[in-house]
Specification:
alpha+beta, Glutaredoxin
């Protein structure tokens, strides 16, 4: 009798329990979702700053201005991450997963595998950025593969 009562009550309580559990599970922020979507497709350069007016942010953007070809050749996506525009979930993600301490400026290279490959508290010169990436095994394989697919001269 008790078992029969239990079997009748559980289906009624289950949807409510699922709603409660879903509400307690933190949803990933936009930044985390963007990085997840980029995995295995693109490298990501995070340019993290308190605001767009921060001097290091402005310097980093200026350094990247004429680097579209180099960034594209290395499958880079540049993401401006401004603390004054971030959700709490995105800020927590930066602290927990990337290891940043708000509101400090940082440039962070995220590899195609989703891992942090380099991090700097200062703007990163394009030569240093490209050199860092070009030393990575995956990038070396991309370079070798592109050489094999070039048409003969």
């Amino acid at each position: 009798m008790k078992r029969l009562l239990f079997l009748r009550i559980v289906p009624l309580l289950l949807p409510g329990l699922l709603v409660v559990l879903a509400a307690q599970t933190p949803k990933p922020g936009r930044l985390e979702q963007t990085l997840r979507v980029s995995r295995w497709k693109q490298r990501v350069l995070l340019v993290v700053a308190p605001s767009a007016k921060h001097p290091d942010f402005r310097q980093q953007k200026a350094l990247l201005t004429n680097q579209a070809a180099g960034l594209a050749a290395r499958d880079f996506r540049v993401l401006d991450v401004l603390y004054d525009e971030l959700s709490d979930a995105d800020t927590q993600f930066l602290v927990r997963e990337i290891g940043l301490q708000p509101p400090a400026f940082a440039t962070v290279i995220i590899g195609k595998d989703g891992g942090v490959k380099a991090q700097s508290p200062r703007p990163m010169a394009p030569a240093a950025l490209f050199s860092t990436v070009d030393k990575m095994p995956m990038r070396q394989a991309e370079i070798r593969q592109s050489r094999h697919h070039q048409p003969p001269k």
